[in-house]
């Protein structure tokens, strides 16, 4: 079961680690131009603030991830 977790409730270091794992995951595409890690992290923070992405927690495997909402 996946539960949405308000990203604002996460500790800042936990949120940063979760975002870094998300942006460095295989298959994440940021286009033809390579983008530095800090820029990618800031982009995801913007998506979270705008409601375009959410943090979810899988209760079965006890793992959190970020999911980008369908447009």
TrEMBL record:
Pfam family, one: UPF0270
SUPFAM superfamilies per UniProt: YehU-like
Name the record gives this protein: Uncharacterized protein
Native source organism of the sequence: marine metagenome
Taxon lineage: unclassified sequences, metagenomes, ecological metagenomes
């Amino acid at each position: 079961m996946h539960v949405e977790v308000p990203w604002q409730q996460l500790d800042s270091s936990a949120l940063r680690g979760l975002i870094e794992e998300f942006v460095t995951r295989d298959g994440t595409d940021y286009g033809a131009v390579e983008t530095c890690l800090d820029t990618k992290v800031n982009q995801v923070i913007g998506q979270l603030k705008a409601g375009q992405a959410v943090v979810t927690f899988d209760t079965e495997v006890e793992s959190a991830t970020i999911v980008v909402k369908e447009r």
